[in-house]
Amino acid sequence: MRQPRRLRSLLSVRSLSGQVFLLQLVLVVLLVVAALVALVVQARRDSMADARHRTLAVAQTFAHSPNIEAALDSPDPTAVLQPHAEAARKAAGVDAIIVYRLDGITLTHSDPNEIGKLVIGPYAEAAAGKAFTRTFHGSLGLSVVSAVPVRGADGSVVAVVSAPITVENAQHTVNQQLPVVLGSVAGALAVAAIGSGLVSHRLRRQTHGLGPAEMARMYEHHDAVLHAVREGVLIIGGEGRLMLANDEARRLLSLPADAERRHITDVGMEEDLAELLTSDRPVTDEVYLAADRLLAVNKRLTAPHGPVAGVVTLRDTTELRALSGRAEVARERLRLLYDAGVRIGTTLDVKRTAEELAEVAVPRFADVATIELLDPVLHGEESSGVHTEMRLTAVAGLEEDHLLHPVGELIRFVAGDPVSAGPADGRAVLVRDLSTFDGRRALHPSDARWILDHGIHSLLTVPLRARGVVLGMAGFWRADDSPPFEDEDMSFAEELAARAAVCIDNARRYTREHTMAVTLQRSLLPRRLPEQSALEVAYRYLPAQAGVGGDWFDVIPLSGARVALVVGDVVGHGLHAAATMGRLRTAVHNFSALDMPPEELLGRLDELVAQNDADGEDGQGITGATCLYAVYDPTTGRLDMATAGHPGPAVVHPDGTVDFPPVPVSPPLGLGVGLPSESAGLTVPEGSRLVLYTDGLIEDRDRDLDAGLEVLRGALTGPDRTPEATCAAVMEALLPDRPRDDIALLAARARRLGPTQVAEWHVPGDPAEVAPVRTACARQLTDWGLEQIAFSTELILSELITNAIRYGTEPITVRLLRTEPVSVPAASTLICEVSDGSSTSPRLRRAKATDEGGRGLFLVAQFAERWGTRYTPTGKIIWTEQSTHDGATPGAEGLGELLLDQWDDTAR
């Protein structure tokens, strides 16, 4: 709306600026139109003159060209001259080059239909031997034509050459330039109009668009308002002279009647105020003393919007001085509450939240602040309702060696103490003067002297309540020169305590949930590593700063002295992630008991997770889980592994170099949609270290995955270390200050079973070969010093070899493994393995009394501590494990009793 209004004001003839604008605009339009007409006329005249010169030059050039006389004397002059004439016409830019004989017959023409016809035109003068240029209507229309005679060798005229160009073509260039000229004219008009508008706008600003009568009335109103307003107004010139002072300014400053036009230092005002008024410094609400008045001074400079001057306003604030102090206190309280909302509750730690409350209150509200909380609150539990004992949790405003009570001490309040009774009843207690307070000695009977020595004279205690439950108490103390607490301070303290109590309660509830999640997670993670002989293992587990998560690890002994290493990660934190981790860990244990290859185990686990996701309600399925499963065989040094969305392991060779072997990565668990997983295998030299980890170790907000792997490589590179030292070095290099995700680290040093710990025989498929193999096995046990279990081992091998020959297919192999666990060398085991090429598995059952067979596997189960079947790509392996210490398995004397137990004569 302002732009149309300004335009109407600018064009209005009632104002001086409008009249000047319209007059300037009319003059500019007339001048521009006249210039346009002159320019067009001159351009057309120049184009016609150019046409005359061009046609005459073309005609003379063609008429004087060599061999034209010979062409005219040729049998067919047109055939010779027409191509040259057309070429010259096109090059010269004329409409035609016409050659005709003296009898008027046309020999060349731009229009072939005109050749051979009698030319009509004023060419008699050219035939007489004189060239000319004229304008006339010919066959091409109104044209400019130049005619030149062609002379023979004797000087006589033998032909005439004419070169016409139409007036339309001659003025074509002018017509093409006309839009540019008109555009330039329009631009000139626009620039002139804008210039006129700027001049008129400047004039309108100076006159405010008013006429003489209106301007006189405006100044009358200006004077009336200036002298009637209840605020002093001064206008000070650039030289420090007083140019204008209204009546209120004269009254406030007691100015003399002739103060105007005098220098500001000569009108009798205070020196500091006069110095301010003569300076070029802008001022906002600065208070100065003038006689017995307090004046709020505001000063603004008029430059660059006007002449160099200063406009000063004066306001009497004597009566507002007392109110301003209270308003400032209120503003400070609001700022303090805002800061409290920002600074209190930055963490979910109960103790730290209490410390933040004390730090906010001191020194802006109190000189000393003490925060006492109930013991159950500090441990994340609900308040018990008993408020006679609280633990001092935070103190601010005192040095540690001057504390009334050490932080963490349990404080017992005296019965009947009004200070402690207030928070118990949910109300604040205000003590303006502790020196005259009746309950001062009851508050701290043995510490009254301490209060006086530190100059504390006023106390305000406020309960910390959330959801209607008292969590503790906040005590605010003032000392020395600080004013005592008032009723307004009590309402502020209650608001501050209410905000802090909500944060403390949130931290308490988080502490409870965190404790529950940590307890659950600790119960689901391995409490100790199992005994096995293939790997020397160490581990680290660190929950995230924000709470426990779903990372886990496992070391699972398998048959044949093999060991499975597992690390996994469930996305998220809290109880659900910990419970999900426990479910996955249990599933991995169950699947590993079936001796599956790594890729098959992850496939089964993927199906389980997908099924749980489909059955989950309210989004409580297992989503975002990854897993790495690796199996190490100490007899061959073979490491087979597969991963479902999890980072691969690091392998530290005995020489200290580090590799990250490539492992085919399958989708995370639950996303494989039935696709088969892939595995990778490699041979690990003895003494190598295997390092498995979760992504929380290598990824952080300050580094990406590649950078984390390089840091891990640097931490692992170097001389040989124990797995425990490896874990320590890795955690020192990669552990962030505040881990955002769980960290699980598993380090294992590979061991090999030497040739003296492995014995193997190939058995032909003949029952007669059982006895020789059994004898060789007994001899090997004697060499190993295991005579005490030789009898039971022979019995086991006899049964397994006989079954392999009877029910299996070749090749049949017998292997004995003697293992010694890493931590308990005395608890060694003997592993017997019988393999064949059949995939059928024996099944343990209790034979009936009338059955002649079916008791062999039962006896194997009685003599072996563990036994089972493991499938291979070429068949199966039936294995047993026996402890080598005395008394682990029954001897020969117990065999008869075991056999007799299979036939119970009393059973009918």
**Proportion of residues in β-strands:** 15-25%
Shape: flat
The main sheet comes to:
6 strands, antiparallel
How would you classify the helix and strand content by structural class? alpha+beta
Measured between the Cα atoms of the first and last residue, the distance is 114 Å
| Strand runs, count | 32
Q: Radius of gyration, Cα only, in angstroms?
A: 56 Å
Please give the count of helices: 26
Strand ordering within the main sheet: 13-12-11-16-15-14
Taking pLDDT < 50 over at least 5 consecutive residues as the criterion, the unreliable ranges are 902-908
Task: Explain what the structure shows.
Its EC number is 3.1.3.16. This is protein-serine/threonine phosphatase. The chain is α+β, with helices and mostly antiparallel strands. It contains 26 helices and 32 strands. It is flat.
In short:
The protein is of the alpha+beta class and 908 residues long.
Topology:
Blueprint: H1 2-11, H2 16-63, H3 68-73, H4 77-92, E1 98-101, E2 106-108, H5 124-127, E3 132-138, E4 141-151, E5 157-166, H6 167-170, H7 172-207, H8 212-228, E6 232-237, E7 242-245, H9 247-253, H10 271-278, E8 283-290, E9 293-301, E10 309-316, H11 321-343, H12 350-361, E11 368-373, H13 375-378, E12 389-396, E13 410-412, H14 418-424, E14 429-431, H15 440-443, H16 448-453, E15 456-466, E16 469-479, H17 487-524, E17 535-542, E18 552-557, E19 563-570, H18 575-592, H19 598-615, E20 625-633, E21 638-644, E22 650-652, E23 658-659, E24 665-666, E25 680-683, E26 689-693, H20 695-698, H21 705-716, H22 723-734, E27 743-750, E28 758-763, H23 770-783, H24 790-807, E29 812-819, E30 829-836, H25 856-863, E31 866-872, E32 875-883, H26 895-901
Parallel strand pairs: 21-24
Antiparallel strand pairs: 1-2, 1-5, 3-4, 4-5, 6-7, 6-10, 8-9, 9-10, 11-12, 11-16, 12-13, 14-15, 15-16, 17-27, 18-19, 19-20, 20-21, 21-25, 22-23, 22-26, 26-27, 28-29, 29-30, 30-32, 31-32
Pfam families: GAF (PF01590), HATPase_c_2 (PF13581), sCache_3_2 (PF17203), SpoIIE (PF07228)
Membrane topology: Multi-pass membrane protein
Subcellular location: Cell membrane
